[in-house]
């Protein structure tokens, strides 16, 4: 991909480790997604900004309710900014990596009371992209962490180059 702009969406699943009241709470069933805008500064380097959202799969929230779990409806969200680098392969394929900062807001319900906390954290990702002219798809492994939340996800994405 040459210099230009990209608008995309990534969705996936994974797990979240949230730190609530100094206790670790593992959530194995989360959905994770983001929308992003990327501006390539050179053929291989760019900057990317977006919004990330992760939340418990509703089925797991229902199970928590049945089991009487104190912490429910865990989700995290926030804006992010990353440096992006890609290396082109043949046939429209390229491998890429990105790393940057995300400002997370962790929201949850504790014994029926809505709670939230915020923190700044980092994010790294690596993936494979396939561009077919102005349209492309990608497959990505993503790891994000702050002092309140850690996310490990696999994602599939769709993007438009313009």
Specify Rg, calculated over alpha carbons: 17 Å
> What is the count of DSSP helices, taking H or I runs of 4+ residues?
1
CATH C-level class: Mainly Beta
What fraction, in percent, of the residue positions are helical? under 10%
Number of domains: 1
Across the major sheet, the strand order is 1-2-3-4-5-6-7-8
What's the mean pLDDT score?
87
* Percent of residues in β-strands: over 45%
Assign the CATH architecture. Beta Barrel
N to C succession of SSEs = EEEHEEEEE
Q: Would you write up a description of this structure?
A:
- 6% of the residues lie in helices and 78% in strands.
- The model is unreliable at 61-68 (pLDDT under 50).
- The chain is mainly β and 162 residues long.
- The protein has one helix spanning 58-67, and strands spanning 5-20, 23-40, 45-56, 71-88, 93-110, 113-132, 135-145, 149-161.
- It starts with a strand and ends with a strand.
- The protein is built from 1 helix and 8 strands, in the order E-E-E-H-E-E-E-E-E.
- The relative contact order is 0.24.
- The chain has a single domain (5-161), classed as Porin.
- Strands 1-2-3-4-5-6-7-8 form an 8-stranded antiparallel beta barrel.
- The radius of gyration is 17 Å and the shape is elongated.
- Residues 6-148 form the Outer membrane protein beta-barrel domain.
- InterPro entries: Beta-barrel_OMP, OMP/PagP_B-barrel.
- Pfam families: OMP_b-brl (PF13505).
- It comes from Veronia pacifica.
- Keywords: Signal.
